[in-house]
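Minutes, structural biology subgroup

Action item carried over from last meeting: produce the structure token record for p-loop containing nucleoside triphosphate hydrolase (Glarea lozoyensis). EB confirmed the sequence was re-checked against the source entry. Recorded below for completeness.
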Amino acid sequence: MATNVEEAETTILCTSKQTRFDIKNPVYQELDIEGLNITVTSGPSKSAVKPKGKARADGLELLSNATLKLKAGVHYALIGRNGTGKSTILKAVAQKLIPGIPIPTRISILQQTDADKAAAGDGSVSSIATSTAKLSVLEQVIDNATSRNEIQREIDVLSAAIEGQTSTLAALRAFRQLHHDRMKRELFILDKDARLRSGTRGMAARKALTAFEKKIAESAERLAEKDEDLTEEVIQEETQAASDLLVELQSQVEPARIADIETRARNILTGLGFPKANFDKHVSTLSGGWRMRTNLASVLLQPADILILDEPTNFLDLLGIIWLEKYLIQLRDSASNPPTVVLVSHDRDFVNAVCQELIILRDQELAYFRGDLLQYDKSIKDKQLYLGRMKDAQEKQKSHMQNTIQQNIKQGKAAGDDNKLRQAKSRQKKLDNRMGMEKSANGGRFKLNRDLTGFHTTARAEIEIPQDEKGVSITLPQAPDLRFPGPLISLEKVTFKYPSPKKTTPPAPAILTDIDLTIHTGDRIGLIGLNGSGKSTLIKLLTDTTKPTKGTVTRHPRLRMGYYSQHAVEELQLLGMAEHELTALALLTQDINDSTDGEDKLDEGEIRGLLGALGLPGRTASDVPLRKLSGGQLVRLALARLLWKTPQLLVLDEITTHLDFYTVTALAEALSTWNGAVVVVSHDRFLVRRVVEGVRGEEESEDGEEEEEEGRRRVVYLLKGGG
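Output recorded by EB:
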């Protein structure tokens, strides 16, 4: 995966345990891979030989001796903090870089990054083509599902050769060229298989590769064979083979089959929010968000054994998210041979509705939990409570035993009583060797040889209380007083419509009509609605980047506003690509130095403190270039660029897009207790409920109390029909 022209290529190195037995598993929806190690290195791999020992430490290790286990037809959610490598692990699965994934497995993937770009892969991995200039949205989705364009190209080549009158050998030449091109694609797959396997099976794969390379060489010789060297029998035989291949290809694109696929494609596009008028638009004319929806439709339409969706709810409105929920649930319940689904999403409600099991990525390991996020959080709290009580009780027991041992030693030495000394020694041995876990994971009595693998010096495992996985702790600086009262922003009878491009054309319809909206200090305002309902236009009016056609917009003269744009991360990524060495600390320092307001200047320690409070501590802020920060880290940097001015109003437009749900929870908690006003534009139902409505769910607070502060107004507005 090349990051840019000058930067070295990033290589994903994967190793796993492989049995020496050739076990055939016909269920391609299942994976059971043990001893999995995944390391990401900067720079191409020097050889095809897999790393051993210290070679693994040359890059960033994402997984160490993990187990990847997928059951057929089950829907999984992969959860973990930003920057732990979730997207890279899914990419390694999709490209079959992990030894143990059968080559025939059909894997479709929607990647989180770069909606406009395709992920390179072999024919079994769904890759969204970048050359979409000549294809409409509907044609692109169908082509990705059926390879119709490639099949049609082969049909055109064979038809022209067979029906043309240019040469009697044209059909033979076309057939040989197509056959050679197909063999080269098959060679790529065999080469990958030979590189990934080891031992006896690796030797067999390399022998198969060598034998196939000889066939490729023979095919190349046939391509270069002169006309006069061809016998009549060969010409007749291969001309007939070309005709048979043409018939086979034509059957694959017959109208009845394509019509059925087109109907399904139209239903999927409609469900994802595409207006029917846009089906015939060229993909190249779409924005990044609509291209991502096109990619998602392509992935959903393709036949797959394993379906991987990395942040599929990005760029979807609420109706699109709900439709996707129902589609995936129906796919699981109604299909005769449903695919295994692995998805990553920050949307808690979406994960809880769709997924049956969780895969928890933590400390370079994969753990599994059957249930949703609410049940997982509750199980963690129950386990913390149970183990905490066990540890407290054991600490009291240890203290009592230690006092008893000291008394026995003292009495034994004073009286010369060897029994007392032996008793003290026996109790000390028990204290050192047999204290720890008393129950196994199944609730039975703990046994060392069954419940604790490997070599240990004690007969009990230590009581380890699981720590909360809350991502980062986010702290927002307090908003300053305005000195005199008044609303922060007031919109009165505001109407907005775009001007007509020409005087002869009819006037454009109003996007917003007679909008009244007042925002006071401490208010929590939520804006929801379908894409195109006017949310972005209203945000532009609030942030003074657009003037109303009618009506008035009034702002408090001392108001400081922080506006987080939904394109903030993409803008920072472009800035990082333009200046390769630019860091978060350097960029924020530059922003502060360029500010004209002298009283807002911060020194380096204060800047580092702000970045650290938002989850960019130490060397992450000062040493890591912007181009190497994850999407979630760039969100935090964008927030820091707003918060150093200590605003009284935050306008947040789709801020959760690049965050993991641990960080979404931390951000929601910080915004809920902040003393300034917040305007939230989001399709994340959890964020709107928590920040705007002030609802605390079971997963956040056992008190179940809603936060109601005096004077705080909580309103959710639905934008529809311009009102």
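Discussion: The chain is about 40% helix and 15% strand.
Next step: EB to file the record with the rest of the batch.
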